[in-house]
Amino acid sequence: MDSVGRGTNSDSNTDTMSADGASPAVETGRRAFLKGTSLAALTAMMGVAIPFGRFMPEGYSPVGIAHAQEPDMVVMAEKDGVTILNERPINAETPAHLLDDAVTPANRLFVRNNGAVPFHALDMDASGWTLSVDGEVDTDLELSLDDLRNDFEVVTRQLVLECGGNGRAFFVPGASGNQWTTGAVGCPEWTGVRLRDVLNRAGVRDSAVYTGHFGNDPHLSGDPERIPISRGIPIAKALEEDALIAFAMNGNDIPAVHGFPLRLMVPGYPGSASQKWLTRIWVRDQVHDGPKMGGYSYRLPAYPVAPGTEVPEEDMVIMDTMPVKSLITNPQTGAQVGRSFDIRGHAWADGEVAKVETSIDFGQTWQQATLDAPVNAFAWQHFRATIQVPQAGYYEVWAKATDTQGRRQPITTPGWNPRGYGNNMVHRIAVLAG
Amino acid sequence: MRTLARTALACLALAAMTSAGIAQNPMLPNPMLPNPMLPNPTVTNPMLQNPMLPGGQTPAQQDLSDIPLNADFDNLPDAPGMEDTFYSCTACHSTATFAQQRLTDERWAYLWDWMITDQGMFDYGPEVREIVLGYLTTHFSSQR
Fold it and tell me: Which of A6, A55, A133, A295 has the most neighbouring CB atoms within 10 Å?
C-alpha cells in the first residue's frame, strides 16, 4: 500500500474497461491493458482518429481513455502538426514554419487551457447561451447571442492571440508552467462586437476599475465550486476600441477548444485576458481578484531579479502588455537553401511594429526587411527579405522587430522571472546554404 | 523564503560595496553559463540542431537518461516516490504538467502547497509531501 492511499498492484486487473476511474486497481489495470494496445485499436476504441498518435510514447494511454470522464482531447483531431505539451489540461503549440499563413487557420492555432473543454462546446451546442454584464454598471445586461449580433455593430478584425508564457522554455533556470517555445501565438480573423460597445450599453460607472471575466470551463479537480481561471483588464483598456467579444473565427463558429460559442479577444495583453466560453463580465470597483490574478500567475517581479531568485509573493505585479516580437515562418529551421533565398514571417507588438531587421552573421550586421502595414490595429504584420550569403555553409537567420515606440527584441532572454513570462528574444533559424 | 531572498539581496549589495569591482559574487549566475542559446554540445551535425532549442530543461534531462522509465506510469523515471507522485498529481492533471518542468526546490514546494490551497488538491499530509517533493526535486530540478 503506498502512502497516497491507493493500491498500485498491476496484477489486480479486475475490470479494465469500467468507467469507474476512482478505483486505483482499475486505473492500473486499464493502463496495463492499454500497454499492449495498438494505435489502430486505440483509435477504434475512441471512435476518432488520433492524429498525433505518432508522438504517443509506447504504452501511453490517451486521457480520453485513461480518464473516461475527460473526452476533451477529441477536439484536437482538428489540429495539424501542433506539438502537444499537455493533455489534461490541453496545451499545444505550433512549430514556427506551420504559422506561415497570413491569417492563422484553426488547425494551426495554439491551445492553452486551464480547465477542461466544457461539454456544451464538445457538443457545439450554444442553445440558451447568455452573456451577463454586471457590477459597476448602471444597467445589468443579459444578452443572447442574437442580441449581440443584432443590437451592436458587428466587426471583423485580425487580432494576435499570444500566451503570456510563450518563450518560457528558454529561461534558465527553468520557470514553472507549460514549456512553450515560440508557438503559443497566432493571428486568426475574429468576428464579434466591441467590448467597449457592450460596456457602454450597460453604462460604466466612475467607480469601475477593472473587468473580471468568467467562462464555464470545468475545474480539473472536478469541483463545481471552483473555476480554473478568471482574469480581467483595466477598465481603460476595456474601453478602447480594439477588444472584441467574438462569436466567430475565420468566418466560422469558434472551434470548441478555442471558446465556442463566445470569447473575449483582448489584443496586446496576455492571452489569458481573452476568456474563452465567456458567460459573464463583472465590472469591478477594484483590481479583479479571480483565480490566476494573484500569486505568481501572470505576474512579474516589481524589480529586476537575478535568475532563480525566490521573489516574495507581495513583490509580484500584474503583467499587462505583451512585448514586441517576430517569427520567421519560412523556411523551416534546418532547411537546405541556395546562396540566395527568400525568408518571410510575421511581427507584432502592443501597438504597431515599425521595422524588422534580419542578420545572417549572428547579429553583427542587420539588414532591413520589407514590412507590411497591419490590416488593422493589433494584426500581425508580414515581413519578407531576400538573403544573399557570401559563401556556402551554415548560417543562422535572425529576425528582430522594433515597435513604433523604439522598443526592440533582445538577442537573449530578457529579465528572468519566476513564471517565465514575456520572453521576446529574437527568433533564429538554421539553414545550410550551398 | 522571504528571509532568504532578502538575505541574498543584502549579500549582493554588500558585495557590490566592498568589492571595488573585482570580487566575484557567488550569488550571481554568469549570464553566459549555461548559455540558454548554446547548441547542445552532443549534437555534432548542425543541421540536426535547432538554434531555438530550449535550454531551461537541460540539466535534469541529462540525469533522466540514467534512470529507467516506467511505461505503466507515463514513462516517468522509475525511482522512489514515483507512484505517490503519479497518483496524487494525476487525480486532476496529466503527468506532462509537471514532467515538462525543471524547477528549483522552492518552486516545487510552492507548487505543492498552491495545489492544496488554490486548486483543491487533497492534503495528503507531510509524509507524502516529503516523498513527492523528494521525487520532483530529484528528477525535475533546475538545481541538480
Answer: A133
Confidence of residue B21 (pLDDT cuts 50, 70, 90): low
How far is the C-alpha of B83 from the C-alpha of A283, rounded, in Å? 45
Number of A–B residue contacts, CB under 8 Å = 168
Q: To which H or E segment does residue A317 belong?
A: strand A316-318
DSSP 8-state class, residue B51? T
The chain B residue lying nearest A177, using CA atoms, is: B101
Residue in chain B closest to A291 (alpha carbons) equals: B118
Task: Please tell me the distance from the alpha carbon of residue A198 to that of residue A262, in angstroms, as a whole number.
Answer: 14
Query: What does the pLDDT average to over B135-142?
Result: 91
Q: What is the per-residue pLDDT for A94?
A: 96
Q: Which residues of B touch A293 (CB under 8 A)?
A: none
SS3 A341: strand
Q: Which residues have CB under 8 Å from A153's CB, separation 6+? A: A193, A194, A197
Q: What percent of chain A has pLDDT over 70?
A: 84
Q: H or E segment at B4?
A: helix B2-18
The amino acid sitting at A285 is D
A237/chain B closest Cα distance in angstroms: 28
Distance from CA of A126 to the nearest CA of B (A): 27
Helix, strand, coil abundance in chain A, percent, nearest 5: 20, 30, 55
pLDDT value of position A174:
85
**In the predicted model, is pLDDT for residue A8 greater than 70?**
no
Q: What's the predicted TM-score (pTM) here? A: 0.80
Kindly state the helix (H) or strand (E) to which residue B116 belongs, with its residue range: helix B105-117
One-letter identity of residue A65 = I
Task: Give the distance from residue A328's alpha carbon to the nearest chain B alpha carbon, in angstroms.
Answer: 12
Q: What percent of chain B has pLDDT over 90?
A: 46
B contacts of A87 (beta carbons < 8 Å): 94, 96
Three cell numbers, residue B75: 514513462
Report CA A260 to chain centroid distance, whole Å.
15
How many C-beta atoms lie closer than 10 Å to residue A222's C-beta? 13
pLDDT band at A333 (very low <50, low <70, confident <90, very high): confident
* Interface predicted TM-score (ipTM) of this complex, two decimals: 0.75
Distance CA A91, CA A177 (A): 11
Q: What is the pLDDT of residue A234?
A: 98
* Cβ distance of B49 and A220 shorter than 8 Å: no
pLDDT greater than 80 at residue A334: yes
Separation of alpha carbons A386 and A330, rounded Å: 12
B102 pLDDT band, cuts 50/70/90, is: confident
Q: Which of chain A's residues have a Cβ under 8 Å away from the Cβ of B87? A: 2, 4, 6, 8, 24
| Residue type (1 letter), A149 | R
- Beta-bridged to residue A318, according to DSSP, are A299
Cβ(A386)–Cβ(A341) below 8 Å: yes
Minimal CA–CA distance to B108: which of B76, B139, B86?
A: B139
